Amino acid sequence: LKNRRQECFNMRRKPELLVPASSLEVLKTAVRYGADAVYIGGEVFGLRAKAKNFSLEEMKEGVDFAHEHGVKVYVTANILAHNADIEPVKVYFNDLKTVKPDALIISDPAIFTIAKEILPDMELHISTQANNTNYGTYNFWYNLGAKRVVSARELSLNEIKQIRENIPDDMEIETFVHGAMCISYSGRCLLSSFMTGRDANKGACTHPCRWKYAVVEESRPGQYMPVEENERGTYIFNSKDLCMIEHIPELIDAGIDSFKIEGRMKTALYVATVARTYRKAIDDYLESPDKYRENLPLYRKWISQCTYRQYTTGFFFGKPDETTQIYDNNVYERDYVYLGIVREVSDNGEFVLEQKNKFSVSEKIEVMKPDGRDIEVNVISIKDEEGNEMESCPHPKQKLLVKLSETPERGDVLRVKE
To answer: Taking Cα atoms as reference points, which of 150, 260, 265, 271 lies closest to residue 205?
Structure first.
């Protein structure tokens, strides 16, 4: 009976693709490249204080843009609050009444209670920061009025399936399927606060898990002895990135409602690449499992075209072992360099671009399309805002007028192979 119930459940629901956005520009990219929903942070009370984040005006514009395209927006308010946060949270939630997001993502019970009082009609999701590791916890939050719970990253697919079998059908499970893995339990880290005074649980993590460590003996200052898990290196907390693009069937079979991408600090190129890849993989599988299997090499190719730290399947198929860590460096793999997003396009084919990295006239670059096409083009001309011709553009964030051998569309992402 349980298996039949699970089969009916999976046939009934198409999983949501939930994509991060660090800015209004990235939100629009996520929408164009296939997101069903986008999660963003305001300027306060989210766990990515170093991200650009959204003012209330930008948030409202982003929500309006997403809704015009049938896409939902969730706002993070998932800090672990201190006393000084309580009254400001009330002000912030009152401000959100004009923004009208589709849900709030919350981890702290006090913040949850305030949201229920001030935004009684708002859908509430429980953040992974709340350590959601069992179906009892899911039912606890459901009985308090939560619509969705984000599973702890320490769960296996079997554990998630057991949760699905023991919670109400209308309770949603959201699970991270791609992105950076935090070395601390459910992201609750004290390293940053202890070592730099910046609290990870209030959004200011400095990522000391990616640093290289050594030991100094008290009587021999200046003599550094490496800390080694094995002979390969000293990056003892440095996890590979999660990637489940090859396991869409197993994720759906587990009863997961929302496939979440990590990366509210990432560029539009990262968001476009990951969103486009998972969008196609999900749609292909739901159309035909055979089509999905045949296209696995394509998904692998696409997903490697953004920055990443090698890939692992995390905890989904059992406890990670020594192969899930990177011991000899803390740098990203990178196949492509992000150049920018096409803005207004004129009748003569010129378009506005805020340049992110250097490129030159006559250089071959790529136009990355939401539909999966990658079009190689030549750079015909580059002009500054005053219309002066330029041979190259070495200064990031400079606004340019660019013409290519093939005219792109507004919102297309430009990149160049490393």
So the answer is: 265
